[in-house]
Design goal:
Helix content: under 10%
GO molecular function: copper ion binding; oxidoreductase activity
InterPro entries: Cu-oxidase-like_N (IPR011707), Cu-oxidase_2nd (IPR001117), Cu-oxidase_C (IPR011706), Cu-oxidase_fam (IPR045087), Cu_oxidase_Cu_BS (IPR002355), Cupredoxin (IPR008972)
Largest sheet: 7 strands, mixed
Structural class: mainly beta
Strand content: 25-35%
Distance between the termini: 45 Å
GO cellular component, one term: plasma membrane
Keywords: Metal-binding, Oxidoreductase, Signal
Family: Belongs to the multicopper oxidase family.
Mean pLDDT: 90
Shape: globular
């Protein structure tokens, strides 16, 4: 559906709400657009939905600009659509950023379930395409607004504006971020929170306060544009390792000489003797994971990836890129200020990347009561852990995985039927052009077949592989232009892959898995190539999935097909005996244990072309992704009138 008159940010506009995507029309009577402040409210049943309007301007902008000499941003300015102060502090190190409305993170979107969200995204970065993905939203009936370049839309060209509009159909903790190149790492992300009436939240009895400011968005950070590290340099900046972590876009940084930047840490204010809901979002882009603890406070987990769970109490959360965790803390401790610590794991462990924030009780206004700040090596106590990296899921040993948790939402029992309708095995690994003696393919190939590679180390040019295929982007979105496929394959055994196999390199094509509508799909994804300190988080667009089993074989370097056969035999036995799987929890992002596996299922009830990929951008860009094509094109809503088109232009050669 399209709006017939251009939106003016401050006045009424002509608009009609498309409750059904197939009913597209324009109205002649103006309807009121609600401001971000009006949409950020306590939600109640039977209230009239709001049409919530946001304007995002994407541009390159300097951190620590001259604006910082005139003002300092407040810690809550992100709750508005416009910056109070156009000073971006980040970690106190000057650099160019790629911001949304001259803020990092970008503006909050906080609405109620069934509100209608309208976001005009203006790209003011010359020479750079852009999109915005609404991470975790199913986009049922709004498939054209998922924000994946060359899958659901064309990139937004410089100086163009693209209007995203969709129903806030799911409630929970989400976020938005760029889905182009590595732009997320340069600042293009922000929180997206959809609340529901308290009486509809199965876990509402566990918290008294759900403060809009209690969003903890963590992100990794470099001190130069991330594109400087893609595909990677051999000598200068010879890795893609993050140099720092930001908490809600700010933090301190310690230089090699011991000097620390002077930036006020993020502070979360809480009432004493109250239960508070916090929403944790991981917007990382590099291969690091994050570990969060709050000094002297236990964390009661009540939701993961916007899906409610039966509560579990832990001390520490490990969270991967794309994941979100909602937890409750009880502020029944002494009135003082406590530390929130986020430690980088994986590659970030080698350089002890660490960031702090403060939890300040009301009544301790000067925060001088805080203890000495924890360090990376002398951090907060770990205690009971959620998301162990090795997949050692044993509550008796104080470790919980997603596969241990139970959903608190309605559950589709057919998910657990013994035999799925579709079963897909997805091994993943890296093809190393050095180790396989295929350097000639990397550097001696025809220009039309240059591989898209990256170099995480000085001498290792790699391509990423998922399901035995390295993904090649189509030149136009199959959602709107299915003729845009240049190289199509639905398996590594397709005719294209057989005909184009070159020197033992992986098949490179637009990898699409066709799935019948309403089928039960089982995915077995496993890490075929155990690498030290590397755990891959995978994200599914267009829906969520139920986590049935996960684990690893730590005594083995690499998983073999026979290992997976044994895992599957055990899994199938549990299904047939109806033992071991009791209301499994739902997620849309999952960390695959190092050298391990995850088995998940979902009902393919949302037609469309939905990306599934590793959420580390260097991996997804170089091939670790595919598309689930659910249903038929006839099952899709019609393409909005005037929707942008793109694609290659290769007319016949007509010589004079």
């Amino acid at each position: 559906m399209e709006v017939c008159k251009k939106i003016n940010m401050l006045i009424l506009l002509v608009f009609i709400l498309p409750i059904f995507a197939t009913s597209q029309q324009c109205a002649d009577d103006g309807l009121k657009l609600s401001t971000p402040e009006e949409c950020m409210r306590e939600c109640s049943k039977n209230e009239t939905r709001k049409i919530c309007y946001y304007f995002f301007s994407l541009e390159f902008f300097p951190a620590l600009s001259s604006a910082c000499e005139m003002c300092q941003p407040t810690t809550t300015q992100g709750l508005k659509n416009k910056a109070d102060c156009e000073c971006i502090l980040v970690d106190g190190v000057e650099r160019t950023v790629f911001s949304v409305n001259r803020m990092i993170p970008g503006p909050h979107i906080q609405v109620c379930k069934n509100d209608y969200i309208v976001v005009d995204v203006e790209n003011m970065a010359e020479g750079v395409g852009a999109t915005m993905h609404w991470h975790g939203l199913f986009q049922r009936n709004y498939q054209h607004y998922d924000g994946v370049p060359y899958v659901t839309q064309c990139p937004i060209e410089a100086f163009d504006t693209f209007r995203y509009q969709f129903l806030a159909a799911e409630s929970g903790t989400f976020f938005y971020h760029s889905h182009v190149s590595v732009h997320r790492l340069d600042g293009q992300y922000g929180p997206l929170i959809i609340r529901e009436p308290r009486e509809e939240d199965p876990n509402s009895q566990y918290y008294e306060v759900d403060d809009p400011a209690h969003v903890i968005l963590i992100s990794d950070w470099m001190h130069e544009l991330a594109t400087e590290r893609f595909p990677g340099l051999r000598k200068r900046w010879s890795t893609q390792r993050a140099e720092n972590i930001l908490i809600n876009g700010r933090g301190t940084y310690t230089f090699e000489n011991g000097t620390e930047t002077d930036v006020d840490l993020e502070t979360f204010y809480v009432q004493p003797n109250t239960t508070h809901r916090f929403r944790l979002i991981n917007a990382f882009t590099t291969v690091c994971l994050a570990q969060l603890s709050i000094e002297d406070h236990k964390l009661l987990l009540i939701a993961q990836d916007a899906a409610n769970i039966e509560p579990v109490e832990v001390n520490t959360i490990i969270i991967g890129s794309g994941e979100r965790v909602d937890f409750v803390i009880n502020t029944n401790n002494d009135v003082k200020t406590y530390w929130i610590q986020v430690r980088g794991l994986g590659e970030c462990q080698e350089t002890e990347v660490n960031q702090l924030a403060k939890l300040q009780y009301q009544g301790d206004e000067d925060s001088d009561s805080a203890s000495d700040p924890p360090t990376y090596s002398d951090g907060l106590l770990r205690g009971t852990l959620y998301n162990p990296l090795d997949g050692s899921c044993d509550p008796a040993e104080e470790t919980f995985c997603a596969s241990n948790l139970k959903t608190a939402d309605p559950f589709d029992e057919e998910i657990l039927k013994p035999d799925p309708d579709v079963q897909i095995y997805l091994p993943f690994w890296f093809h190393n052009f050095n180790e396989t003696n295929t350097f000639n393919v990397l550097y001696g190939s025809d220009p039309e077949n240059y591989p898209v590679f990256f170099s995480p180390q000085a001498t290792d040019p790699l391509v990423s592989v998922l399901g035995n295929v390295t993904f090649k982007s189509p030149s136009a979105p199959p959602l709107t232009e299915p003729e845009g496929y240049e190289y199509f394959c639905d398996s590594p055994d397709s005719n294209y892959c057989k005909e184009h196999a070159v020197d033992r390199t992986p098949c490179s094509c637009t990898h699409v898995q066709n799935v019948p509508l309403n089928s039960i799909v089982e995915v077995i994804i496993y890490d075929k190539q155990r690498l030290p300190t590397l755990n891959h988080p995978f994200h599914l667009h267009g829906g969520n999935f139920y986590v049935l089993d996960m684990g690893s074989l730590p005594e083995q370097d690499n998983l073999s097909e026979s290992d997976i056969e044994k895992v599957m035999a055990r899994h199938q036995k549990r299904l047939r005996l109806h033992k071991g799987y009791d209301r499994p929890s739902a997620k849309d992002s999952i960390i695959v244990p190092q050298g391990g596996w995850v088995i998940f299922r979902f009902r393919a009830d949302n037609p469309g072309y939905w990306a599934f990929h590793c959420h580390f951008d260097w991996h997804s860009i170089t091939g670790m992704q595919l598309i689930f094509h659910i249903g038929l094109d006839s099952d899709l809503p019609s393409t909005p009138s005037g929707f942008p088109r793109c694609g290659s232009f290769k007319p016949p050669v007509c010589a004079p």
